[in-house]
Every structure is written in C-alpha cells, then in structure tokens.
Amino acid sequence: MSCIIIILKLNLPKLICAHSLARFNYLLDSIKKNTINERFLSALEVLDDIFPEIDFRSFH
I need a labelling partner for 30 at 20 to 30 A (CA). Which of 2, 12, 37, 38 fits? Predict the structure, then answer.
C-alpha cells in the first residue's frame, strides 16, 4: 500500500468532518444574511442525504 493511500485513509474522517462543518457554517451564514443559494442547497441535499430511502412526506 502506498504512503499516499495510508495518509488519505487516516485523514478521511477528519476531512469529512471538516467539509460537513464548512457546509453547515456556510448555510448558517446564508440563513443569517437571507442569501440562500438554492442551487448550492440542492447540491448539498444530494451530497448529504444520509437517509435516501426515507420519504419526508410520510411524516406530516
């Protein structure tokens, strides 16, 4: 196994966490400024879909 792959495997959880926090902070700032980018929000819905099989409309 190459050194690069080992380094990436060790740092992957930290990278995922850092990206998630950055996206959250971007959304928080957007909400505070009332400047939500709908295209970016749609992309995040795809990227961060942790329960893709659940239909939110079932819970009204």
Answer: 12
